[in-house]
Every structure is written in structure tokens, then in C-alpha cells.
Design a protein that fits this description.
The complex is a heterodimer of chains A (301) and B (412). Chain A has 301 residues and is mainly α. Chain A has helices at residues 33-57, 64-71, 74-105, 109-114, 123-136, 150-174, 176-179, 186-216, 226-229, 234-240, 242-253, 259-264, 271-298, and strands spanning 27-29, 231-233, 265-266. In chain A, helix 8 (186-216) crosses helix 13 (271-298). Among the domains of chain B are: 11-81, no CATH class; 247-328, no CATH class. Classes of the chains: A mainly alpha (301), B mainly alpha (412). Chains A and B meet through helix 1, helix 2, helix 5, helix 7 and helix 8 of A and helix 19, helix 22 and helix 23 of B.
Chain lengths: 301, 412
């Protein structure tokens, strides 16, 4: 019996906390260290930006003043906000360089841009979206996703859109004198609206819809740590990304190579890795839900 | 009850004073003739105290005429302060300290006489009274009763040299500010605050607030209910006086402007300036930074700091590179008003639609997903990793599982 087929259970044989560790099969790499670090940076900077920005946006809410005091006052919160923004711009730039280098070096550019591995939106995503609704009403099977489902692509493209909108308006508001040389002043009013609403949209989307899709769905509850540990079981991958697994397996079928899957095989995450991922994940989840609570609370004022 | 005397060791008077001092300098002796120790103390006059007072050059009998002989004749009377200080007495008669008749009497309390502020034998001359420790002592006497009006050390009026309660409230003609005759009555403030703050008062009387004040007859004011145009104390308070530039003043000033200008305040609090101010920033612009403090005019008045032609220098106070394009910023945006600025209106609605639209579509997407999974669960169809094999099945035996695994194993 091959040693890569393991029935993963922890403790007393119950269901693993991490949805990506449930089911059988070897662990398969889904995200490399660079992906995971980028996502970790995104969480840290996004939370910092949201939590320093939200008391200003909802200055009339009861939580605004204590939260500002926590940051050390409006000016210091602004400084932290802009530091986090610079951090976000930096890793985004590194990410763009990484993706560019990857695209230049890859032999199959068409596959990276237009294939089922792509992060870019394709017509197939629209079909998957409609198929998902058909499935909801019992009019069809669940759509079979490739490496990235349309929801994951939405998260990614949402970040691109959000980065441009929030980043652009943020820099305008950071340097009003510079931008005010060649822009009419009311553009700062517009920038304020775009900045605030796009940030609210990002926060509301990530802290409700992204959290539900990724972690809180009854079939994955309470946590999917694949983005933190970087790997999931074969069962998990087949459930979430069947088209990708088909392709891996198609290669594996060929007599020369069991290599495709062997190359992607990962050691099971250690207990420590799982614990760290769980603590990080739950902390992010808790703060995110608290933030949603704050937005709703503030809506009353 | 008769008031007693002391001793000045100088010249002719000294002799007379010494005579009085025989009894009124000896507490034990006095105690034998009084019912209580407190009475004896009141009759005790210390010569050095009297010598240091403004009345140090006078003899006892100048005030206590007829008491020169002992035993004191029954007809002897002590002279009133008014005999010499007629003008002060006249002023005092008009003040609240002379007593209030009717309903208010209980509220205001008893009559406050000369000696309660000036003391008896320790009366201080005007020069010393107006400064230093004597002024502080005099103010203490005022605040002994007017506790709430006590100024704390950082208050600019307390810190200022030679400024005491009397500087604003007059020395003898104190009246409650509600009294139109009071120096601190709303319409009198520009005159009396302006006595020191000339520049502010001179500018202010011409601006909208000053003109409104001058146009309003005193009887139309009711400061207690905040009726009438704003005066000095409407913004600056009195006890303590709020200092421009300090956080407390800045926040309070905006709130005060907001009392009469709620719409302007509401739109201001929709901007970065307003929000940062509400959270305690003092470096961002508030009402007075743009509209000025004492020269407020409508925007269509060329004297206004927010008149179109004056906006560049006004904004440039904080934004040094302000240009005609920059000052098109709307400090009081109305996102619901299409005519005020269509760009703001449409971007507001676009972002709101995007927010609500996205959350609605994907909120429903999420909700239906949850329902689908729950419905399937009830029918015995389970989703999620590990469920496709069904419960209790050993590895490699599940249906539809591991196209790779089964065959992959054989390869090995």
C-alpha cells in the first residue's frame, strides 16, 4: 500500500478542524510560500487599514473615539494607516513583478492567461455562475471549478479593483496639494466617497461573503486553512477544484508519469502549522465579524 | 455691634491709638467682657495689621467717633464706609450685592457689604489691590461664594497680570449677566470685553454676528435660554474662558456654531475636516479656520474669507499650494443634492449602488448556497471533502473516488 494514501484524522478520530485536511488521499500543494505570505500580508495590512479608517469614517459612532484613542489619536492613526498602505502597495508591486516574471518564463503563456489555471475572468466563469444558480434550484449539477473558482477570481479581481480605487483615491487624499495642482478640488470630495465606499464594500464583502464561501459553509465549517498551510487532501482538492485535479490526473495516467501528482504531493501539515493557521484564521474571522458589527452599529448614527 | 481699633506707632495719632490698644490689643482682657471667645476675637485689633492697611494713616476715632472715652458712651456710633467712599457706595447700592428684593432674594442670598470683600482693619489700598497676592486674595473672596466661577490656573484671565473678577464684573456694581445693566450682559460684552480685546471687538462689531447684535434690542435677549445673536461668551465662555487653538475650545466652538447653523455643521461633519475634528484633531480646519473668528460674512460678501476671490489665501493657510482649481473643493458637500455638485451626487450614487448591488447579489448567492447544502443534508446528500466516499467505507473502496489513487497505487 502506498504511503501517500492516508486517512487523515486527528485526536480521537473526529473530523479535522481544517476542511482542507478532511477526506482521504495524499496532501496536494495548492499555494506556495509566496502565495501564502502575500495573502498573510494582505490580511495584516487590510485589517490595519480598515481598523484605522473605520473610526474616521464613522466618527459619530460610539466606538470611534475609544478606537482612535487605542491608535493614539487621529494623527497617529493616520500615520499607521498610511504605513499600512505603503506596505500594501509594496507587496502588490512585488506580486506584480512575480506574476510578470512567471508569465515571461512560462512556456505555455496561453494556458496561464486563458486556460483553466488562470486567475483572470473567463466566459467559463459566467457559465459556472449560472450553473451554480441552477444547482441551487435543483436544475443541474454543481459547477466543476478549475484551479480558481469564479468566487476566488472575484476576490482577486475585487482586490485589483479595490487596490486601484482605494489606492488611487487614498494617494489623492494623502497629497491634496500635489493633486490639487491639476485637479479640480471637488475631485477630493469624489475621492473621499470612492475611498470610503469601496473600503466598506471590500470589508463587507470579505468579512461576510468571502468568509462564508471559504470557511463558514456548512460543508467546510468552521475553517479552511488551505491558504495558511498551503495544502489540502486529494479529496478536498477534488471537491473544490475538480477540473484542476482532472488535469493532474490525466497527466498521471500516462505511463511515463505519475510525476504530476507526485510533484504536487505535500507532507501533511504539522500540528503546529495547523494550530497557527487556526489561531490566525479564527482571529481574523473574529475581528472581521466585529468590524461588520461596528459598521452596522455605526449605520444607526 | 461696635467695631474695634488698633494702633499706629507714629506721631500724635500714635498716642491715641495706644490708648485704645490697652484693651483692644489684649485678647484675654477682652474675653472678660464678652460672652464668647469669638466676640473677643472680633474686638481684637492688631496694630501691625492696621498699620499695613490703606487706613494706616488714620486713628481709631476717625471711624469710631465718640469711642475716645472709656467707658464708651452709649450714643457712640462707628462711621459707615460711605461717609468717605461715597461713589463706591452709590455703585454698590445698584449691585446685586446690595440685596435683591422678592423672589430672587432666596436664590441670591444675603447682602454682601464692604467688609466682606475688603475686610475690616485690613483694607488694602487700590494700588496693591489691583495686583499680585492681594488681587488673588480678593478673587478668593469672590469665589468663596461664587464657587462655580472659580478659574483654574491655566485660564488666561487668571494667568493674566492684574485681571481679577472685578475687571469684567466691575468693582462695586456687580449684576447678574441676565440683567441688561450688567457689564457682562450680552449686548454689553463687546464694549467691556473689547476694553482689553480691542482688535477682536473692533473686527467683530462689523461682521454678521456683531451687526445682528447691534440690531437686536436688549430686551429681546434671553441669554439663559440662548436667545439672541451670539456674543463674546457664546463662543468663548466665561468661567473658564476657552482659549482658541486648544482642543476643548475647538470642539466646543464647532458645536456652538452648530447650534444655529445645523446644516453647515452636518455637512462639515461629512468631510475629513469634520470627522477628524470630532475625534480630537486640532490641526484640521474647523469653522473659524475658513470663516474666520471675528470677521464672518456671507460668502457673497467680498469681505468674507470664503468669498470666491478670497478662497485661495484662506485655504492656503493650511494647504500652501492651494490654487484656483484646488479651492473648488466642497467643504460642505451634499451628496443628495444633484444641483450643488453633480460629480459628488453621481459618484455617491454609483458607489452606493455598487455596494448595495454587490452585497445583494452575493448575499443571495451565499444564502441560497447555505439552503442548498442544508436541503441536501436532509436528503442524505453530503457535500465537502471526505463525504463522497460515504461514511464508514475503507480507503480505496469508495465509489467515484480516486481515479488516480486506485490506478496510481498499481503503478507503484
Amino acid at each position: 500500500m502506498s504511503n501517500h494514501i492516508v486517512h487523515h484524522e486527528y485526536g480521537d478520530g473526529g473530523v479535522p478542524l481544517d476542511a482542507a485536511q478532511r477526506g482521504r488521499g495524499p496532501f496536494i500543494w495548492r499555494f506556495n510560500l509566496f502565495h501564502r505570505l502575500t495573502h498573510g500580508f494582505a490580511i495584516i495590512s487590510f485589517y490595519t487599514l480598515i481598523l484605522t479608517g473605520i473610526p474616521l469614517r464613522f466618527a459619530c459612532a460610539p466606538f470611534a473615539e475609544p478606537l482612535m484613542r487605542f491608535w493614539g489619536g487621529v494623527e497617529q492613526a493616520g500615520l499607521i494607516h498610511r504605513t499600512a498602505a505603503v506596505f500594501m502597495v509594496t507587496y502588490t508591486f512585488v506580486h506584480i513583478v512575480y506574476m510578470t516574471v512567471k508569465l515571461v518564463r512560462t512556456r505555455d503563456k496561453r494556458r496561464m492567461l486563458w486556460g483553466s489555471d488562470s486567475l483572470l475572468p473567463h466566459p467559463q466563469d459566467a457559465r459556472d455562475f449560472l450553473q451554480q444558480w441552477k444547482w441551487y434550484f435543483g436544475k443541474g449539477e454543481r459547477p466543476r471549478f478549475g484551479r480558481y473558482s469564479y468566487l476566488e477570481k472575484m476576490d482577486y479581481m475585487g482586490e485589483v479593483w479595490g487596490f486601484v480605487i482605494i489606492g488611487g483615491s487614498g494617494f489623492m487624499l494623502w497629497f491634496p496639494e500635489f493633486f490639487g495642482r491639476w485637479m479640480p478640488g471637488w475631485m477630493f470630495n469624489v475621492a473621499t466617497i470612492f475611498h470610503a465606499y469601496e473600503a466598506m464594500l471590500a470589508a463587507a464583502f470579505l468579512f461576510t461573503i468571502h468568509f462564508f464561501n471559504v470557511h463558514l459553509r456548512p460543508d467546510k465549517f468552521p475553517l479552511d486553512a488551505v491558504m495558511f498551510t498551503g495544502r489540502g487532501t486529494l479529496d478536498y482538492m477534488e471537491e473544490e477544484h475538480p477540473v484542476m485535479m482532472d488535469q493532474i490526473e490525466a497527466v498521471a495516467h500516462e505511463p511515463v508519469s505519475h510525476k504530476a501528482i507526485a510533484d504536487r504531493r505535500a507532507p501533511p501539515p504539522t500540528r503546529t502549522q495547523t494550530m497557527v493557521a487556526a489561531i490566525f484564521g479564527f482571529a481574523a474571522w473574529g475581528v472581521g465579524l466585529a468590524t461588520i458589527g461596528m459598521i452596522l452599529w455605526a449605520a444607526l448614527c | 455691634m461696635a467695631l474695634i481699633m488698633g494702633l499706629v506707632p507714629a506721631g500724635l495719632e500714635a498716642q491715641a491709638v495706644l490708648e485704645c490698644q490697652r484693651c483692644h490689643g489684649e485678647l484675654e482682657l477682652l474675653r472678660q467682657h464678652t460672652r464668647t471667645l469669638a466676640d473677643a476675637r472680633r474686638m481684637l485689633v492688631l496694630p501691625e495689621e492696621l498699620a499695613a492697611s490703606a487706613h494706616g494713616h488714620m486713628t481709631c476715632t476717625d471711624c469710631h467717633a465718640g469711642f475716645g472715652r472709656f467707658p464708651h458712651p452709649a450714643a457712640a456710633r462707628t462711621t459707615g464706609c460711605a461717609d468717605c467712599h461715597e461713589a463706591a457706595e452709590q455703585e454698590w447700592r445698584r449691585s446685586a450685592h446690595a440685596g435683591v428684593e422678592g423672589e430672587e432674594a432666596r436664590e441670591v442670598g444675603e447682602v454682601v457689604t464692604c467688609t466682606q470683600c475688603h475686610g475690616v482693619h485690613t483694607v488694602v489700598d487700590l494700588e496693591r489691590l489691583a495686583e499680585g497676592p492681594e488681587l488673588a486674595r480678593l478673587n478668593e473672596r469672590c469665589t468663596a461664594c461664587h464657587e462655580l466661577q472659580r478659574l483654574s490656573p491655566p485660564d488666561p484671565h487668571r494667568a493674566a497680570e492684574g485681571v481679577g473678577c472685578h475687571s469684567c464684573h466691575s468693582a462695586h456694581e456687580q449684576l447678574p449677566p441676565a440683567d441688561p445693566e450688567s457689564r457682562m450682559a450680552a449686548h454689553n460684552q463687546p464694549q467691556f470685553c473689547g476694553a482689553c480685546h480691542q482688535e477682536a471687538a473692533a473686527a467683530w462689531v462689523n461682521d454678521v454676528h456683531g451687526q445682528a447684535l447691534l440690531a437686536t434690542p436688549p430686551e429681546d435677549f434671553d441669554p439663559r435660554r440662548g436667545i439672541g445673536p451670539p456674543t463674546c461668551s457664546t463662543c468663548h465662555d466665561a468661567h473658564p474662558t476657552a482659549v482658541a487653538g486648544e482642543r476643548d475650545f475647538t470642539v466646543a466652538a464647532v458645536e456652538r456654531c452648530a447650534e444655529c447653523h445645523p446644516h453647515a455643521a452636518q455637512t462639515f461633519f461629512g468631510t475629513y475636516h469634520g470627522k477628524a475634528t470630532a475625534l480630537g484633531s486640532v490641526i484640521v480646519a474647523t469653522c473659524a479656520d475658513c470663516h474666520s473668528a471675528h470677521q464672518i460674512f456671507p460668502a457673497d460678501d467680498p469681505r468674507s474669507t470664503v468669498a470666491e476671490q478670497n478662497l485661495v489665501p484662506t485655504c492656503a493657510a493650511c494647504h500652501p499650494y492651494a490654487r484656483p482649481a484646488f479651492v473648488l473643493y466642497d467643504s460642505h458637500p451634499e451628496p443628495f443634492n444633484r444641483h450643488r455638485n453633480p460629480a459628488i451626487f453621481y459618484s455617491f450614487w454609483f458607489m452606493n449602488s455598487l455596494l448595495i448591488g454587490t452585497l445583494t447579489v452575493f448575499g443571495l448567492h451565499t444564502l441560497f448556497w447555505w439552503v442548498r447544502i442544508k436541503v441536501d443534508e436532509r436528503r442524505g446528500i453530503f457535500h465537502g471533502p471526505g463525504h463522497k466516499h460515504g461514511p464508514g467505507q475503507g480507503q480505496g473502496q469508495g465509489q467515484g473516488q480516486g481515479r488516480v489513487r486506485g490506478e496510481g497505487d498499481e503503478h507503484e
